[in-house]
Amino acid sequence: MFSLFRWPSARVALVVLGMTAATITPIVISTPASSQNTVPSTTPSPTSTVNLSDVSSDYWARPFIQALADNNVISGFPDGSFRPNQGVTRAEFAALIQKAFPNQNRVRQLSAGGFSDVPAGYWAASAIQNAYEIGFLAGYPGNVFRPSEQIPKVQAIVAVTNGLGLTASSTGASTDLNTYYTDASAIPNYAVSSVTIATKSNIVVNYPDVKQLNPQQALTRAEAAALLYQALARQGRVQPIASNLPASQYIVGATQTGNDIVSLAASSTSLTTLTSLLKTAGLTDILQQPGPYTVFAPTDQAFAALPAATLQQLQQPENRDTLIKILSYHVVPGAVTSSQLSAGELRTSEQSPINIQIDRANNQVSVNNARVIQADVQASNGVIHAINQVLVPPDVNISQLNQPPTGTTDGTTPNVTAGRTTLGGPSYIGVAGNIGLSGSDTALSDGNFAAISKIGLTRNISVRPSVIFGDDTLFMVPLTLDFSPRAAGAVGDRTFAISPYIGAGVAIEVNLDTDFGLLLTGGVDVPVGSRFTVTGAVNAAFLDETDVGLLLGLGYNF
Questions:
Q1: Rounded to whole angstroms, how far apart are CA atoms 362 and 156?
Q2: Which of 478, 494, 493 is nearest to 527 (CA)?
Q3: pLDDT tens-digit map of 384-409
Q4: Would you say 46 and 373 are in contact if contact means Cβ atoms under 8 Å apart?
Q5: How far is residue 102's CA from residue 73's CA, in Å, rounded to a whole number?
Q6: Which of 228, 153, 232, 223 is nearest to 194 (CA)?
């Protein structure tokens, strides 16, 4: 056996006290600032600062265009348009490269005379020289650049691959492109290797057919934005486009997940509470049917802003009808994108109307008092609009749910149901690793594997049997008090909800003799989708010695 840390037993009380305080304090997760801040670290929302009149909220390349426009990598025209379908010249592409990669190392030097067809006073002379010297673009025989010539898509892909220094050895690329493109034979020989490398690096974006490259067609301004965004994502300077956004389906080689409304919500870390409530209400099967539906989806932070006891009350069997009524109030029959919405009333599946307000000048949609913070997440059976508040039907009095019940529906004895969902989330069974922090009496004090579980009993009480395997195997059976989920900070576009718990129980050491002792525990559960829960806890077992360990595990929800 081994121990990673050894602490004096006198510190055990401080460990448990600190652990307990940590579990009931909101946790904020942050991301260090990048040294390169030319472009944002997240996918843009409908509240982006630059409004382009011809890039609607449901335009296929909007996430790429808006992110780069907000940070001055690309820009619109004086009339407020972007002209996404307009072709890009070689000079214009050089200017985009200069904005997107301002700190790229120079790998060669342009001769003193430069290109013969790029005079010193030409508007893009500096950008062309920069694009050449950092390895993105090259000239043609005869020392010409052809700045006014529209750049073919395949040439732009080759330029980005060269400029990023990508090689076959770094991507594991093969030379067979027929797997990806129906028109692979149209790729010129000089570009086959670079296109293969770019494809394996998820840099190539094809619209409207992801398998149609159209290599010799002129690159459009929308395609240029998508290509450069993916190149920046490859460098780690921007977050990859979220897999539940429509734009992701045009990235060649990108892994796609289930794309019905429920699957997309379950794949988003900002909609975990909604996903759980849909399951509790029995609405998941309905929202996986063809529909179509429009769902105004409250984020985890929106649910966390409800009065303290509302969420736990809504999950009680006696309040299931109310939960269904509230969730149905967020669903509108038919697929309605933000550009198709108009001011006025929309009738929901709950049969009560919601009020839509449109602010076209600021590209903003509101529903009752909630604001749409991410519009037009396209699903196979409809569309999702994420909102920042929970909508409550006019005939539901939310204040009546705020007082936690003291017993069953008849108010006599506690309502105990083994395996139920508690305030902190669903029950689960899983595996974990233990890190010994103090002591030397049991497996808790060493590095060992463990089996863990959570079995909900009431709304806020669980039993969490677990066993840590080792030379001195330890069984732990704590009874825990589960607290409501707390909205933590965000990492990129991911928002986390954390559910603390504390408790006490019995520790049983199994060796030649069987010893019993007091067990104290405290930790947090972090839901990661509808199927799994990440958990971490500090446990202190008081036997012949005091052993303390940190348990980190993954549970499968049931």
A1: 33
A2: 494
A3: 888 999 998 887 776 655 444 444 44
A4: yes
A5: 10
A6: 153
